[in-house]
Write a structure and sequence with these properties.
twelve-stranded mixed sheet; Aminopeptidase; elongated; alpha+beta; 9 helices; 27% helix; 29% strand; 338 residues
Length: 338
């Protein structure tokens, strides 16, 4: 069992204690917290923007990495030894040089409104400051936190602690296949199967498309390339004359997001077109091509995530294709003071 952690501003509740992550033996209790919170906070089991992780899911994520140390970055809250909430901290850098320290936490509904979530958030902020002290932030460090529009308790806590919504993720869904037909590519562009030697050009093409997008995480090529196992999920357009890669769409296929034996479900993971080639119909043509390819494999519905504040207002494009907004996920931030 991990050592007890002293939380000075915690409420005086009989049996309440805080401690660090104790290893695999804690995963079942943490998963139980997430299951109860997910039901209460109306987490959609089909969502691609948030999830209710199982014990096995947590086992895959509670492992050390450059940006996360479960031994120091996780705090458990217990009542008489039972886990009733937990928090963790993870950090990354964004393309504009911002250092984001994301603070996440969950408390079961029966123990909310007792100051436990507030005390856990204060611990996470202190941990974030410790991490930031070792980062060359150059004054560009922020706390980040997430709460969907159905997570009302978390939203109230964050607003009370000085966090403000900086942008919102929209989750959209597509399931109306009636009359969907693949449009031809605009004149002058071609598609062909993606090959592994194309990956560097694909990575460069995507990054170039996001130079004007705020809040985008800085990607590392090798980490991204290692995740590209099934290249058939990509639908890419090239300029026929120059041979330059100009736009790309990816639909990931997943089995049983809600039910292990359920139908295949798709996620429109990537949609980007280079600035000189926008407005010519490339994006909708590639999206519909990718949707129909997924449909041919048995996919009945496709989800996507997009920023409400996307400079090109991409959500309007998705609405024209047939997607509809299902839920909003505000992303909160607060300046990280030393």
């Amino acid at each position: 069992m991990a050592d007890t952690v002293a939380i000075p501003d915690a409420s005086r509740i009989a049996g309440l204690a805080f401690r660090g992550f104790g290893g695999p033996q804690d995963l079942a209790g943490m998963a139980a917290v997430r299951a109860v919170c997910g039901a209460y906070d109306q987490v959609d089991p089909l969502s691609v923007a948030q999830s209710v992780p199982t014990e096995a899911d947590l086992a895959r994520t509670m492992v050390p990495s450059e940006k996360f140390d479960p031994g120091q970055d996780v705090l458990l809250a217990t009542i008489a030894g039972r886990i009733i909430g937990y928090s963790h901290v993870i950090w990354w850098t964004e393309a504009d040089g911002t250092w984001l320290h994301l603070l996440l936490g969950w408390v079961v509904p029966e123990w909310r409104q007792h100051g436990i979530g507030t005390a856990m958030l204060h611990w996470a902020e202190a941990r974030g400051r410790t991490l930031a002290a070792g980062h060359p932030t150059q004054g560009k460090a922020f706390f980040g936190a997430n709460a969907s529009d159905t997570e009302r308790d978390s939203t109230a806590l964050l607003l009370n602690e000085g966090y403000r919504a900086r942008f919102s993720v929209l989750e959209m869904g597509f399931d109306d296949w009636a009359g969907v037909q693949e449009p031809p590519l605009p004149s002058g562009f071609v598609t062909r199967p993606l090959a592994r030697p194309d990956l560097p050009a694909l990575f460069a093409s995507m990054n170039e498309c996001y130079v004007d997008h705020p809040f985008s995480e800085a990607l590392v090529y090798q980490e991204w390339a290692d995740q590209q196992q099934d290249l058939s999920t990509w639908h890419v357009a090239w300029d026929e004359e120059s041979g330059e890669m100009v736009g790309q769409v990816q639909v990931l296929l997943r089995k049983g997001l809600a039910e292990p034996e359920g139908p295949l479900q798709g996620e429109l993971e990537e949609v980007s077109v280079g600035a000189p080639y926008r407005g010519r119909g490339l994006a909708p043509a590639l999206i519909v091509k990718a949707l129909l390819a997924a449909r041919a494999l048995g996919v009945s519905q496709v989800r996507l995530r997009t920023l409400n504040e996307n400079p090109q207002q991409a959500w309007r494009l998705y609405e024209k294709v047939g997607f509809r907004v299902l839920k909003r996920f505000p992303r909160y931030r607060k300046p990280l003071e030393p």
